[in-house]
Design brief:
There is one protein chain. By secondary structure, this protein is an alpha/beta fold. Helix content is 46%, strand content 20%. Strands 5, 6, 7 and 8 form a 4-stranded parallel sheet that branches. Strands 1-4 form a two-stranded antiparallel sheet. Strands 2-3 form a two-stranded antiparallel sheet. Strand 2 and strand 3 form a beta hairpin. The longest helix has 18 residues. The termini are far apart. The relative contact order is 0.12.
Protein backbone atom coordinates (compact mmCIF):
# COMPACT_ATOMS: atom_id res chain seq x y z
CA UNK A 1 0.00 0.00 0.00
CA UNK A 2 1.12 3.51 -0.51
CA UNK A 3 0.69 6.67 -2.50
CA UNK A 4 2.03 8.46 -5.57
CA UNK A 5 4.43 11.35 -5.17
CA UNK A 6 3.75 13.93 -7.86
CA UNK A 7 6.24 16.75 -8.20
CA UNK A 8 5.07 19.84 -10.03
CA UNK A 9 6.72 23.02 -11.17
CA UNK A 10 3.96 25.57 -11.58
CA UNK A 11 1.39 23.76 -13.72
CA UNK A 12 3.74 21.21 -15.27
CA UNK A 13 5.02 17.91 -13.92
CA UNK A 14 8.61 18.25 -12.71
CA UNK A 15 9.10 14.46 -12.78
CA UNK A 16 7.16 11.29 -13.44
CA UNK A 17 4.85 10.32 -10.55
CA UNK A 18 6.56 7.82 -8.24
CA UNK A 19 4.85 5.19 -6.14
CA UNK A 20 5.98 5.23 -2.49
CA UNK A 21 5.18 2.33 -0.21
CA UNK A 22 3.85 3.65 3.08
CA UNK A 23 2.63 0.55 4.88
CA UNK A 24 4.41 -0.55 8.01
CA UNK A 25 2.77 -4.00 7.96
CA UNK A 26 1.79 -5.82 4.78
CA UNK A 27 -1.39 -7.90 4.36
CA UNK A 28 -0.72 -10.92 2.13
CA UNK A 29 -2.65 -13.93 0.94
CA UNK A 30 -0.98 -17.24 0.23
CA UNK A 31 -2.16 -20.65 -0.94
CA UNK A 32 -1.02 -24.10 0.11
CA UNK A 33 -2.01 -27.21 -1.82
CA UNK A 34 -2.72 -29.99 0.71
CA UNK A 35 -2.66 -32.78 -1.88
CA UNK A 36 1.01 -33.80 -1.57
CA UNK A 37 0.91 -34.24 2.21
CA UNK A 38 0.11 -37.56 3.85
CA UNK A 39 0.38 -36.36 7.46
CA UNK A 40 -0.79 -33.26 9.25
CA UNK A 41 2.75 -32.79 10.56
CA UNK A 42 4.04 -32.48 6.99
CA UNK A 43 1.23 -30.04 6.19
CA UNK A 44 2.03 -27.98 9.30
CA UNK A 45 5.74 -27.89 8.42
CA UNK A 46 4.97 -26.70 4.88
CA UNK A 47 2.51 -24.06 6.14
CA UNK A 48 5.04 -22.76 8.67
CA UNK A 49 7.77 -22.63 6.00
CA UNK A 50 5.43 -20.75 3.67
CA UNK A 51 4.64 -18.24 6.43
CA UNK A 52 8.32 -17.77 7.24
CA UNK A 53 8.93 -16.83 3.59
CA UNK A 54 6.22 -14.16 3.47
CA UNK A 55 8.36 -11.21 4.72
CA UNK A 56 10.48 -11.71 1.60
CA UNK A 57 7.40 -11.11 -0.55
CA UNK A 58 6.60 -8.03 1.55
CA UNK A 59 9.89 -6.23 1.01
CA UNK A 60 11.10 -7.18 4.49
CA UNK A 61 8.03 -5.80 6.24
CA UNK A 62 6.06 -7.60 8.94
CA UNK A 63 3.13 -9.57 7.53
CA UNK A 64 -0.45 -10.30 8.50
CA UNK A 65 -1.47 -13.27 6.38
CA UNK A 66 -4.40 -15.27 5.10
CA UNK A 67 -3.28 -18.79 4.23
CA UNK A 68 -5.80 -20.79 2.22
CA UNK A 69 -5.25 -24.55 2.34
CA UNK A 70 -6.87 -26.16 -0.67
CA UNK A 71 -6.92 -29.33 -2.72
CA UNK A 72 -7.98 -32.94 -2.72
CA UNK A 73 -6.32 -34.66 0.22
CA UNK A 74 -6.46 -37.86 2.25
CA UNK A 75 -6.28 -35.53 5.28
CA UNK A 76 -9.74 -34.11 4.45
CA UNK A 77 -11.65 -35.83 7.27
CA UNK A 78 -9.05 -34.96 9.87
CA UNK A 79 -8.74 -31.33 8.78
CA UNK A 80 -12.54 -30.88 8.74
CA UNK A 81 -13.02 -32.09 12.32
CA UNK A 82 -14.60 -29.44 14.58
CA UNK A 83 -11.92 -27.24 16.10
CA UNK A 84 -9.09 -28.65 14.00
CA UNK A 85 -8.68 -25.55 11.80
CA UNK A 86 -8.32 -23.39 14.92
CA UNK A 87 -5.74 -25.80 16.37
CA UNK A 88 -3.83 -25.84 13.09
CA UNK A 89 -3.86 -22.02 12.92
CA UNK A 90 -2.47 -21.85 16.48
CA UNK A 91 0.27 -24.34 15.60
CA UNK A 92 1.22 -22.37 12.48
CA UNK A 93 1.30 -19.12 14.51
CA UNK A 94 3.53 -20.81 17.09
CA UNK A 95 5.86 -22.11 14.37
CA UNK A 96 6.05 -18.67 12.72
CA UNK A 97 6.50 -16.82 16.04
CA UNK A 98 10.27 -16.67 15.64
CA UNK A 99 10.04 -14.84 12.30
CA UNK A 100 11.81 -11.52 12.08
CA UNK A 101 10.04 -9.40 10.98
CA UNK A 102 6.93 -10.91 12.47
CA UNK A 103 4.30 -12.94 10.61
CA UNK A 104 0.80 -13.21 12.06
CA UNK A 105 -1.62 -15.72 10.61
CA UNK A 106 -4.96 -13.88 10.65
CA UNK A 107 -7.07 -16.38 8.75
CA UNK A 108 -6.82 -20.02 7.70
CA UNK A 109 -9.65 -20.90 5.30
CA UNK A 110 -9.81 -24.58 4.35
CA UNK A 111 -11.00 -25.15 0.78
CA UNK A 112 -10.50 -28.90 0.78
CA UNK A 113 -11.99 -31.87 -0.99
CA UNK A 114 -11.92 -35.53 -0.05
CA UNK A 115 -9.60 -37.82 -2.01
CA UNK A 116 -12.44 -38.83 -4.31
CA UNK A 117 -12.90 -38.00 -7.94
CA UNK A 118 -16.25 -36.24 -7.46
CA UNK A 119 -16.82 -35.87 -11.19
CA UNK A 120 -16.42 -39.61 -11.75
CA UNK A 121 -18.29 -40.44 -8.52
CA UNK A 122 -21.35 -38.43 -9.57
CA UNK A 123 -21.77 -40.76 -12.57
CA UNK A 124 -22.35 -43.77 -10.32
CA UNK A 125 -25.99 -45.03 -10.27
CA UNK A 126 -26.48 -44.84 -6.50
CA UNK A 127 -27.64 -42.39 -3.81
CA UNK A 128 -24.35 -40.49 -3.61
CA UNK A 129 -24.10 -40.25 -7.40
CA UNK A 130 -27.65 -38.85 -7.55
CA UNK A 131 -26.92 -36.38 -4.75
CA UNK A 132 -23.73 -35.12 -6.39
CA UNK A 133 -25.45 -34.75 -9.77
CA UNK A 134 -28.41 -32.87 -8.32
CA UNK A 135 -26.19 -30.56 -6.27
CA UNK A 136 -24.03 -29.85 -9.31
CA UNK A 137 -27.09 -28.83 -11.31
CA UNK A 138 -28.47 -26.34 -8.78
CA UNK A 139 -28.55 -22.74 -10.02
CA UNK A 140 -27.18 -19.99 -7.75
CA UNK A 141 -30.70 -18.71 -7.06
CA UNK A 142 -31.66 -22.08 -5.55
CA UNK A 143 -28.49 -22.08 -3.46
CA UNK A 144 -29.46 -18.71 -2.00
CA UNK A 145 -33.05 -19.84 -1.35
CA UNK A 146 -31.74 -22.61 0.90
CA UNK A 147 -30.53 -20.15 3.51
CA UNK A 148 -33.43 -17.68 3.24
CA UNK A 149 -35.45 -19.48 6.00
CA UNK A 150 -32.56 -18.82 8.36
CA UNK A 151 -33.24 -15.10 8.01
CA UNK A 152 -36.68 -15.62 9.54
CA UNK A 153 -35.49 -17.79 12.44
CA UNK A 154 -36.29 -16.00 15.75
CA UNK A 155 -33.04 -17.11 17.41
CA UNK A 156 -30.79 -15.64 14.74
CA UNK A 157 -30.08 -11.97 14.20
CA UNK A 158 -31.43 -11.29 10.71
CA UNK A 159 -29.09 -8.33 10.16
CA UNK A 160 -25.93 -10.09 11.29
CA UNK A 161 -26.74 -13.19 9.26
CA UNK A 162 -27.60 -11.18 6.15
CA UNK A 163 -24.25 -9.37 6.39
CA UNK A 164 -22.43 -12.71 6.57
CA UNK A 165 -24.46 -14.33 3.79
CA UNK A 166 -23.91 -11.42 1.40
CA UNK A 167 -20.17 -12.10 1.49
CA UNK A 168 -20.55 -15.82 0.77
CA UNK A 169 -20.32 -17.38 -2.65
CA UNK A 170 -23.20 -19.86 -2.98
CA UNK A 171 -21.20 -21.95 -5.48
CA UNK A 172 -18.31 -22.32 -3.02
CA UNK A 173 -20.70 -23.34 -0.26
CA UNK A 174 -22.26 -25.90 -2.58
CA UNK A 175 -18.85 -27.29 -3.56
CA UNK A 176 -17.92 -27.67 0.09
CA UNK A 177 -21.29 -29.31 0.86
CA UNK A 178 -20.81 -31.77 -2.02
CA UNK A 179 -17.33 -32.63 -0.76
CA UNK A 180 -18.58 -33.12 2.79
CA UNK A 181 -21.46 -35.36 1.63
CA UNK A 182 -19.09 -37.40 -0.51
CA UNK A 183 -16.72 -37.83 2.41
CA UNK A 184 -19.43 -38.81 4.88
CA UNK A 185 -21.37 -41.08 2.54
CA UNK A 186 -18.47 -42.99 1.03
CA UNK A 187 -16.10 -44.07 3.82
CA UNK A 188 -13.04 -45.73 2.39
CA UNK A 189 -14.25 -45.21 -1.18
CA UNK A 190 -11.09 -43.61 -2.53
CA UNK A 191 -9.92 -44.04 -6.14
Amino acid sequence: RGCFLVEVDGVALAAEPRFLETDAVRWLSADLDAEPFSTTTDLLDAAAALCRGLPGRAGGRPVVARLTVHGRTPLYSELRRPGYAADLARAIRDAAASCEPFVWLADLPLALQPPLDLEARQNQPDFLGDLLRLAGDLPDSDCRQVWEPLLEHPGISRYQLRAVLEDLDPREILLQARALCADLLSPGDAP
